[in-house]
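Lab meeting minutes (informal)
Scribe: AK
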Amino acid sequence: MARNQFVGTVIREANGVDYGRFLPRQYVGSGGRRHSSEFTGVWQHLIRDKPILPFLIPVFLLAWALERWIVPFSNWVPVCVTVWATIQYGRYRQQQIVEDLNNRWKRHFLCTQPTTPLEPCEWFNKLVLCIWPNYLEKRLSSRFRTLVQRRVKEKKPRPIQTIEVHDFDLGKAPPLFGLQRTFWSLEDCQPVLHMGFEWVSNEMSVLLAAKLSAPFAGKVARININSIQVRGDLRLVPILDGQAILYAFESTPDVKLGVAFGSGNQHLPATELPVVSSWLEKLLLDTLNRTMVEPRMRCFSLPVRDSKKRVTGGVLSVSVLTAANIPRPENSSRMTAGDRYSSNGSSFSGTFVELTLGNLSRRTGTSPKSTWDAPITMVFHGSEATLHLNVYEQRFQSVKSDFLGTCEIKFKYVFDGSTTFWAVGRKPGVIAAHVDQCDREVQLVVPIEDKSGEITVKLVLKEWCFADDPKNSQTPLLQLDAFRSTRYLTGRKIKVTVVEGRNLAPKDRSGKSDPYLKLQYNKIQRKTKTIQQNLNPVWNQEFEFDEYGDGEYIKIKCYDADMLMNDENMGSARINLHSLEANTPRDVWIPLEKIDTGEIHLLLEAVDTRDSETEDHNMTYILELILVEARDLVAADWNGTSDPYVSVRYGTVRKRTKVIYRSLSPLWNETMDLIDDGSPLELHVKDYNAILPTASIGHCAVDYQRQARNQTVDRWIPLQGVAKGQIHIQITRRELRKQEHPPAIERQRSSRVEEVSGRVQEVVSRLFSMVDSEDVKDQMQAQLEELVNAEQEQKVLVLQLLKEKELLLSKVKDLQRAMTGLV
């Protein structure tokens, strides 16, 4: 007990550090555990140190037995054994404490030392070499192919019209890490791992197919990247207590690409292209400098769990609170305090912040004190995005704004459903934050790059949009593999109501615009009406699209209508439909991208129509259309009147009313029954002429699809294509089961023939049972079999005649409909 307390005291007093916390409980204090395992450890320790001990134990036992029962010796033998066992146990405990202290001291020294010695990573490179061909190379090739495809499309030169990645293979040579140096350092209380990076490969094959523009229009050039050399120094920084790692190159790496014209095989030999090689090298260096060279760093998250969701975008709310210690340009510093205010005391000079997230740009108001706190909602695409904040100063009577500085904040979705934010702090620090769910507020103080100022920003991740929406699980699963890549209908309808717009960009000289919208879903396009001279237009127009399984977005483009020139673009937006739940309307304001201002107010709703399709297949609907009257019709005759009648067009069905002579307010009161098959219902009002062709005096479309069953709607519908005129209708969508239909005459006859045939077969079977005599049995059986065969043949002939009759009647009805349409 005293020895343990002494050891703990010595450990605590060494170097002023409490190392007693590094010891287990059995080594500090009185202990309290049972000694069974401890005795086993002591015994094994004695066996290792003193191999002769097992042979001495029987000798001691024999001596003790002789002394105890045969020849009495003195009592010093038990005392010696006890002393010897105590000494051995003390040595064992001391050795255990020393080993444990050494291990914990090494661990503490590794965590607190500022640097580590330089050492190579041959063991790590050996591991990478083993798992490269069948795992890393395939995953990285798939990942890099998507990045390269997007990047070359964005930065293609003018001689290239389109460019596609046809093949992407990184080869068998993996990158090597830490060949020259690998060590840890402590920078501003932040551990940093420095590691060399070298990737030299002459076995890679990246094939690009570039379609050339004029004067080589139509020709395709095959560009083959066959080698790569990248050398640089990596810097890895653990953040958020090990939940993520930031990594980047310390400086711009050396990059060389080997590019050839052709595929490199015998049919199309490769030819070196220095011009294309320099363009691709510049493109790669520009991409690295923008995303992965200090101070810009990428983030590798280390989540505990994986929700297995694919993110397609999200909504971020940004509030710029303050901007402090922003350095002013030299010409701005010469302004006096009085120059910053007008004669009436109002502020006319101040700073504003421009926010850029992807293609979306917004700005705060101008504030002389650099304080704002106005939330701005921004929509982004993908699982990772970068928010750029550019600070400007707007001076009085100046069209140009002075640039004061910039900074950026990056954020990404983590697979466990959380979000990580990070930014570059004061050199060499890093600012990072982590939220475990949406709608959690994060406040960051981000320094201006290469300046002394800083910006305080409040961020709220409102929503993540996922591709694996519950609606996808309801789509048909029984699909052939050959058709999985094609588009298929999900059975839902997407209803988009374009409500209004606000703060649109002025495009006309009057400071106004004539805005209209174009909506595109897959290959279906719709267009709103044009609102004249308005920056806050109100449309209130509804559009409906059939939802496709691969339809992820609805694209919206806003234009300014111009009669003499081409319509000018006023911004665009993409609406993510993955998180749209069935029968749950969403009211959203969508900011326009690629422009500084403008928002569109939309109402989105996904209506599931599959329930109605699976109700009862025996259920049909009858449209009962009553054409009541019309009023204020256009005069088509020379005497100021018309001879109106209505032509009804419903799919392939053509019907018409009677003609009301010399009337502009005719009264028909005619009823028409139409089988509801979902076809568009159109009414055409025409003027009847005996000699001349009929003249149209208006038309209209009747929207009945949303009408409830067994409900009568009484409407006055204005006529289109004419200056005036209305038609009065009553329409009822009445449900009717097939068994309630009046049976046709041919069906009655068919059922009657089947009934008679059944009776004949029953009589014949009774005759078979009545035959008992052996003399006449064979003869009657033969005759009855012949009768049965004749009856069956008659039944077949009668059914065939009935089918031919039904076919003839259907042809007559089609001819009658065609004649009615001509009239």
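Next up, CB showed the second protein from the same session:
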Amino acid sequence: MPAALMYNLCHDRYNWYYHTVAQKNMGKRVIYWPRGRVWGGCSALNAMVYIRGHPLDYDRWEKEDGAKGWNFENCLPYFKKSETYSHSKGPSDPYRGHAGPQKVTRSSADHPLHQAFLEAGTQHPIGTTDDVNGYKQEGIGHFDMSIDKGKRCSTAAAYIHPILSRPNFHTTSGITCTRILFDGTRAIGIEFIRKVNFYGTENIDSYSREKIYCESDIIVCAGAINTPQLLMLSGVGPPDHLRAHEIPVTVGLPGVGENLIDHLEIYVQQKCTKPITLYNKSSWRYPHHMIKIGMEWFSTHKGIGASSHLETGGFARSSDDVEHPDIQLHFLPSTVHDHGRKIGTCHAFQVHVGNMRTKSRGCLKLFSKDPRRHPIIDPKYMDHDDDWKEFRKCIRLSREIFAQKAFDPFRGEELSPGDQYQSDAELDNFVRAKSETAYHPSGTCKMGQESDKMAVVNPETLGVYGTENLKVVDASIMPSIVSGNLNAPIIMMAERAADLMQGKHLPPEKEMTLPKFEFCEIAANPNGWGPLGSPPALDTSIPFQQYNKADRIGRVADWIGVDRFFYRRGNERYNERMYGSAANAGSQFDYVHGMDENNFQLVDSSKPVQRNPQRNFRARQLQFRKLLQKEQERQNSSEPSRCGSVAEETHVKVSDLDRLPSVQVRPDWRVIEEMDFPRLLKLNLPGVGSGEDIDKHQYGTLHFYDKAIDRVSVRTPVTLQRCGGNFYNVTTTEDPVIEELAQQGIGNVFATDIIIATLMTAPRSVYSWDIVAHRVGDKLFLDKRDTGGISNPVDALTVSETSGDPPSFEGAGINNAKDLATEALFINQNFRRQVLKRNEHPYVMAHPRAPFEEEGGESGCGYRYRKWTLGKNANGKPIEVVCRTEHDGVMVGSVV
């Protein structure tokens, strides 16, 4: 039962019940260190919080610690392979696994105090995160739990129990391995003892000694304490230390037992003004409550017993100079004392908080050569001055979070540290007296290069240096501790180790590590006019402005940069100055303007190409488009050629004559009427009422908008994330709902919101090159032109009335129309998903799935079909526009 974790954690039947030596920096306190002595090790004792750590932790392993091959690119595939995540998006999920043995569940966090903690994250600069194991670790969010259907999913439950019936798999329990047997430096077997006399005196004679020999590898997975102890008992370790205990030296490795690292944490506790904590429900003071919880869990695997209740938490950076989060918080809607061995006295809640990357390093030594005696454990807590600074920040950060408005209904007095602890010295005293282990010892047989004298394990083979057939796979080989709990990283390490030992590996996921979106540098002259540089070939007497009037009418700035301009030939530079376009002469954005503010015109010089007939359009639609294409070709062939002559001596083509402009403004024109832009912004057009929904034609699911996005600032930026999902490009004549409405006689003009928006905002004309009109009887369909045969197949509407060609494609350059449109589509699709609470239950419309969405491939969008009456046409018949509107999200409390 997950809620009974304190019983396992504090009972010596299930754990080794280790203790450290008195800590000189902790008031000479001896710290209790529970470690699992059951199948599954500490995964059978821990709080089931499943945290991978930060990607940069693993990159640091390779770059700084010498663990070649253990960067995040190589580790991510094994994180995904090992887990089945309850909120995974399937094989397309870039970060989460969906078919692994380790079951991982996203916590529900439905307790009011958990909800308050999550809300506090939106009010504090720390912010929130949708997935602490996904793209963005930093922030407050739901914790993942190694819980499957209300039961703990230890590594034994995930990996061992399902294969117990295999004929080639043998297990035994109730034994203690005393040493590894060597033939020279080659490991050939193990020696172990089994207790045969369970009564009487506790001496070595009450155990039987046995040996097992093997010809293959011996793999030690005893953990950060027992692994170095076993190696030293076997003669592998610091030579002087082994001789002091009269142990023959097999291989001298001074790093065995060194580099001991652990997470230390402190509890910040707040009294709760409402009786809603777990104090009454799970306290030993109320055994009848515990009996009720147990009966409910045993019968249903639900209720309070089905969770460890550390369901929310977060990660923060101690300062802006820190590259990635170094503070972790675990929130609990109750309080614990002395590892749960003491019970609370009132309704209260707490946060466990600590420094994730301590600079203190301890060590582990043998107490004696008797394998039954616990080793000497000295983590040397708080041995570095920076650790004290970090813990002060940890406590103050916790206080700031509890001080947020979300906790106003629950916040009582501070129980721990208490209001009397404010200064640095006072907080240091509190840490010295009350901090405890977070149960994450590691690093005592670290991976590293052979040139590192303290390295014990080869990172590429996991073999122990100086030995043969001996390998280690557990937390002891971590060269440095990760920023989070250790269960998930150790499972990943074991999965990768299994492949390494078989000479294989999963391919790295380079595109999934830390996707970043960075703006290109925009060239600008701080002095106003003129380029940033003036090479001799440039006539500087002509005024020049890199970004000119096109921007003022909505043209998107060109990000190619000034270098592109300087490498143009002289006449091309002149054309760019005259036309102001940073694109080619074939671009739909060319324009001509005068030198004053009131004189400009837009000119198009693009040409169409033959469409690709392979796309699966309806036969009638395809035939209609072919007729249009032939008619256009006939008209083009009948017009006189506009090309000039070719200057043979220079082989330079003379520029095309200007086409008639589709938009022109002259300074001598009289203003007849000014547009009422405020009314246009509200789409409050005269004579046009608000649209009405058509019956129950509402489809899809909508996620709620994350209001935390409104608080994004320069101080708390949010990086664009890669968010998986489905995208449907279904045009008007391909939409089965529009087809049904047309057959029912509802409406006579049909379009989508994208097409109507294009018509309303086109800067040249109300007729875009991408939009075609089909008339069927008395009905008009505004549709998207088929772009399957051009070089820019992305669904991006271009604006071009007089063009003959679609936008040109410049090949492999990153600034061609295709790549820019693809990038824009990528940004838009990912951004609209990033600003939503995708891990919460969505709002479901009348029909959960649109007819054109595939089963299981929902886009996460909502679709409403609406109708507007625009008055009457020339024949006196009403004009009724039916439009499919697409919605990306929904606000809490809004009416859809």
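CB comment: The mean pLDDT is 77.
No objections, moving on.
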